[in-house]
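Protocol step 4 of 6: record predicted structures for both targets in the notebook before any analysis. Target 1:
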Amino acid sequence: MRRLFWVALGAVAGVLVVRRLTRAVEAYTPAGVSRSLADLGDGLRELADAVREGMAEREQELRIALGVDAGTLDPQTAQSLGVPFAAQADRGDDQPGGSRHVR
């Protein structure tokens, strides 16, 4: 009975080793390398899409928080942030908060 157990254990170990070696060899064939590069490219595209989506969401949150989209940004906040403000453009100021010199 003991010998049968060790023979079965050896056979299972042999099968597992052969399967792993076969997978490793297939990974280095031209088809395997191509497949892994395609998977890497797909992963990078998914990562870039997720980053772009996160950036767009954060930009929208910041625009809402600052009141840029709603047009509720007051002149003082616009000046401190360096955001062009319609009232400053109407006054003819060259710089936010600055005065225009007339000669």
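Target 2:
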Amino acid sequence: MTSARKVALAVRSDLATWQKLNVAAFLSSGLGTAQPEVIGDVYLDADGRVYPPMLAMPVRVFTGDDAALRRSFDRALGRGLLVSVYTDEMFTTMNDVDNRAAVAKVATSRLSIAGFVAVGDAKQVDKAFDKLKPHE
């Protein structure tokens, strides 16, 4: 029997709404490339139109201040979860190359985290996100 898996995403509470949505979209987009098993099958409507597959499990979305996100981020890394990060510097870039360069020039402990997503064993995800509040 395999353990239950979970996806959780956190965005910093002081971000503008457009920033929160942008962070969530970017972070969710990469999970399937790193772990294809989290992606479901294609969607098909009644007319036979095919739509691309999406994540096969719900994404729990949380929020917290800078300190709360840092704590959860560090706990997710420490638990060996697959983590993607979106930093404040990425709001100023206009392409993927510059996004990667912005992250690459800062040590993990000094990243200014706007948001992050984690996937893995449900119990470990719960422990990493335990102090964050569900986003409303």
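Step 5 preliminary note on target 2. The first helix runs from residue 17 to 29. The radius of gyration is 16 Å.
Proceed to step 6 after PI sign-off.
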